[in-house]
Every structure is written in C-alpha cells, then in structure tokens.
Amino acid sequence: MNTAYLDESSSFSFDFLAPHPSQDADLLQQLSFIPGLKEILMLRQVHALEHATVWVLGDNKKPYSPPGTSTNTQLDDELLGGLSTEQGFFLYGDVNINDLRRAVTLAKHRLTSGEWDLAIHPRCGTNVSVAMLLTAGLSVTVPFLLPFRPIEQLIGLGLAATAAAGIAPDLGMLTQRYITTSIPFNLAVENITIARDFWGKESHFVKVSWEN
To answer: Are 88 and 206 spatial neighbours (Cβ–Cβ below 8 Å)?
Structure first.
C-alpha cells in the first residue's frame, strides 16, 4: 500500500472557495477591463469589515466570565447598525470613536487571520432581500402547480410562505458568504469621522482605500 499517497491525499483541501489574500487583486488584474469591478470588489470587502466591526463592538459588551468559562459565543449589539459603500461604511449607534477605532483594527486583523465567520451577520439586509425574493418566487411558482381553485391556491400560498421562511435564513447566510462579502485583504483604513449619511442621519464613517 502506498502510504505516502494516502497521507498526501488526506491533507488535500476540498474547500476551493476558501478566501486567500490575493484573490480580489488577481481578479481585478485579470478583468480590469470591466467597468466598476474595483468598486464592487471594494464594496464586498467593506461589507465584511462592517459586519466584523459590529461583532467586535458587541464582544466589548460581554459580561465578565470567570476563568475557565467558555466565551466562544458572539454577542450581537442590536443597537448598532451599518451601511456599506465602496468608500467605507457608516456605523449607527452610540459608540465611542476611540472604541470604534480599536474595533475596526481588531476586526480587520481577525478577518484576515482566518476568522472568516465574522464577515457574516444575521441582521444583514442581504438576508431580508433573499427572503423577499424567495417568498415572491415561490408564491408565484407554487400556485401554478396546484389546481386553480381558491382553497388549493390559498394552501399553495401558505406552503410557499412557510418554505421560504424555513429556507431563507440559511440561503441568506450563503449569499453573504460567497456573494455580498469578501475578506478585506486589500483594504486600508484611512480615518474615522463623525459624518452624515445620504439621508442626513448622523453616524460614524469609516473611510477605507484599496491597497494591493
């Protein structure tokens, strides 16, 4: 038996979608002729950094745990929210700007060091959008599979809504992981200021730039 082959094959990673530091830079270099590609790639990375920053700020509010107690759970501060753009992200909520600076730095470090789950957040608007699209799609499709009588149609709509509610959370998380976020390997944080968003609402703005 060729044990060397077994050892080599057992260590092979099948996760070909795992993030790597040069993925977006390579993609931008290969497809630089596509208008707006850099902005899209930046937006995905900013989106991940926004989520991770909210997680880190939530961790800061964890109650004290005695030594030896497991503290692996993430604490979500529901009073915080964010909005990502290709230039940075707005952070809403009562937060000290110095705490925010530390949180952004730590969030970026943890993301790029392998804590990729910090890029995913259950309160993300992506989940809401996926749920709405899924509900609409199933509500239109399922009734066509049933007899065109009122009772059957109502049952079909109920089944569609129930199915969408059950599938949407997991599908939303997958959409975040592989489509709407990306690990911020190419982002440099420039500054953090108090600013107003597009609707005039006061918030903190974390400005970033692209670095190869």
So the answer is: yes
- Residue 192 contacts residue 49 (beta carbons within 8 Å): no
Q: What is the pTM of this model?
A: 0.82
Which of 91, 63, 66, 58 is closest to 189 using CA atoms? 91
Fold for domain 36-59+77-120+181-212?
Threonyl-tRNA Synthetase; Chain A, domain 2 (3.30.980)
Contact between 131 and 164 (Cβ < 8 Å): yes
> Domain residues of the chain, as ranges?
36-59+77-120+181-212, 123-179
Residue 155, CA atoms < 13 Å, CB-side half-sphere: 8
- Exposed, middle or buried by CB within 10 Å (0-12, 13-18, 19+), for 147? exposed
Alpha helices in the chain (DSSP H): 3-10, 23-30, 37-59, 97-112, 125-141, 150-175
Q: Report helix, strand or coil for 161.
A: helix
pLDDT digits 0-9 by tens, 32-67: 999 999 999 999 999 999 999 999 999 876 554 454
Bridge partners, 210 (sequence order): 187
Positive/negative CA dihedral, 120, 124, 128, 130: negative
